[in-house]
Write a structure and sequence with these properties.
This is Transcriptional regulator, AraC family. This protein is about 40% helix and about 25% strand. With about 350 residues, the protein is of the alpha+beta class. The longest helix has 19 residues. The C terminus is likely disordered.
Amino acid sequence: MENFQTQLMEHLQLYARRHNGHFTLYTNPEHPDYGHMYLFEQPGSYFLMTGSYTISEDFSLPFHLEKTLLHFGNFHTGAALYQLDGRAPAKSTPCSFLAVEQNLHGIQHWKKGDHYYGIELIVYEDYLKKLGASRLLEADFLSAFRPDYTYRYLPEDVYQILEELIRLIREKRLSPLMLEGKLLECLAHLQQEVYSSENGFLKQLDYGRIRIGKNRSFQLTLPDLRAVHKAHEIIRLNAVNPPTIMQLAAMVGISVQKLKAIFHHQYHITIGAYITSVRMSCAARLLTTTQLSIRDIAWQTGYQQSANFARMFRKTYGQSPGEFRSRANPASELPAGSLPASEDEIGVNTRLPD
């Protein structure tokens, strides 16, 4: 990382003009239009770079990152083309960003005339581990982020802290203690975000596409997933008397088509089959833990007709409810009102409603 910084400054034609113990200012007195760069560093722990500079010539730099870093910041202007080994070229654009970078290798390109203005903080994993050991940071904090993925998002509080750091640097008031305090504040807000139910970073992830039929597909989003997970829970709690699919879709705020497609994609089962699965699991539990009649169990699991219940139970478990109960507890005796010995007596072949 240090070698990359040195080469970058050489190509920017910015040179260390003032070193004040905890920061270095890079400028070019002969070409003030090239801009400037500030570097604040706590070796082995973190460093901050901020500046406003213009590229004086085209250049490219390879990079080889051997450590794990947390990298985040705000770029107001500037774009750079880069390519990671084994991946297609990509382009950075002005935005807030965050990435957990691990063993990255690639090359980055800069174009003459492009202007950059922004701030970035890079935090080493060892520093974060020390915070974890002190219980100031969750031990699994970094694992909350997808490695080597650039999130185009920062919580508003973190954004404002970074902007305040720029102001403090401009006013020459940023001390080492103040910088570390601001960094810890950023980490606190990031941690609060990743463990909240409204984690904004999850909204940045690509959840893939779901195909509908032969020629149609749609992009899966975090709100879609949350809606389907909510639908799954509603069904689990109301399998005896579930809402219709149209009612369920309205309850979770998603279209019927999306609900059916995403539900099957996530749980590998249709909504109707899941309702039956929950009912049959409940029936099996009642058969083995209670002395309720089979007719009562059918009613409690959402079947008004014992015949329909018996047919579905046999389809699920390969035996009648009575056989299932007897094998689970051979000593049990069926109470009055339970399923007759002959399934034909209750019309086991009766057609189930669609």
